[in-house]
TrEMBL record:
InterPro entries: Calcineurin-like_PHP_lpxH, Metallo-depent_PP-like, Pesterase_MJ0912. Belongs to the metallophosphoesterase superfamily. YfcE family. This is Metallophosphoesterase family protein. It comes from the Bacteria. Pfam families: Metallophos_2. Residues 44-212 form the Calcineurin-like phosphoesterase domain. SUPFAM superfamilies: Metallo-dependent phosphatases (SSF56300).
Length: 276
């Protein structure tokens, strides 16, 4: 989807780093993230977001302002890319007529209408990838795929895909020891032949596990730990209702299950009987 890949060199970041993705217009989750960081003495220079600052929830304008106020590094997700371009959809590549495709029209239109020119200009200036050093290791940061920002890569994706993406990134950045990514919405670490592929998960939507808490990650001393993030779910649901968005994603915040499994590979789907 990108014609030219813009890379940000972040230098050496040896202290604890907070890694997160997908704020998804969920202002309450961003506020909880800020509190989580403050409690651990982590400032904006120690935070990296893998993109999609806006999406399913009801406060895109406020969410973007809160993310920008944190001063964290943000790489462009497909939502930022599309909104900056003035595109008509989120660019996720959902199958036409699928549940995700139909639901995305409402939240994308809401975000496009709520964000001002300044916010969209900020989105258009975000880097596509970033690189930094931590504890002697070099990390690359992307959203989905290197050449296709909306590419879904899962914990069970074929090894050849990880190798392909790794090579695509190194063609731009030079060698990296590990890759931090987002987009899929599910946190995982995949040990590949070339290093760790780390998906920090997202803070704006639960990881389809039946719980309301979302996810973020801490990189400290070269080790990655996932953490659950509690936030004001009722407040986020109220924002979505006020915005007139379909109830499907508001119900997802409450139930902990996504409204559709269209994008998920079979091995990561949850049988309806298991949802209680």
């Amino acid at each position: 989807m990108q014609a030219k890949i813009n890379c940000a060199e972040l230098g050496v970041l040896d202290g604890p780093l907070l890694l997160f993705g997908g704020p998804y217009s969920n202002l309450q989750a961003v506020e909880a993230l800020a509190a989580f960081a403050a409690a651990r003495g982590i400032n904006g220079g120690q935070m990296i977001c893998t993109g999609d600052s806006v999406a399913y929830c009801g406060a895109p304008r406020e969410c973007v302002a809160a993310i920008r106020a944190l001063g964290c590094v943000v790489v462009a997700g497909n939502c930022e890319v599309q909104l900056a371009r003035g595109a008509e959809d989120c660019g996720c590549g959902f199958a036409p007529g699928s549940s995700c495709d139909m639901l995305s029209g409402a939240w994308y239109a809401h975000a496009a209408g709520q964000l001002d020119a300044g916010a969209k200009d900020w989105m258009g200036r975000l880097p596509d990838v970033a690189v930094f050093r931590h504890q002697g290791q070099r990390y690359g940061v992307i959203h989905g795929g290197v050449r296709d920002v909306a590419r879904y890569i899962w914990s069970e994706t074929a090894a050849a895909v990880f190798d392909e993406e790794w090579q695509a990134l190194e063609d731009i950045t030079g060698p990296v020891d590990h890759i931090i990514a987002g987009h899929s919405g599910l946190p995982f670490i995949r040990e590949t032949a070339r290093g760790r592929w780390i998906n920090a998960g997202v803070i704006g939507m639960p990881p389809h596990d039946g719980g309301q808490q979302t996810r973020l990650a801490l990189l400290d001393g070269g080790e990655v730990g996932f953490h659950r993030l509690s936030y004001d779910v009722a407040g986020a649901v109220a924002d979505m209702a006020k915005a007139g968005l379909p109830r499907a994603y508001a119900e997802a915040l409450q139930s902990g299950y996504w409204p559709s499994e269209d994008v998920l590979p079979p091995g990561l789907r949850v049988p309806s009987l298991a949802r209680g």
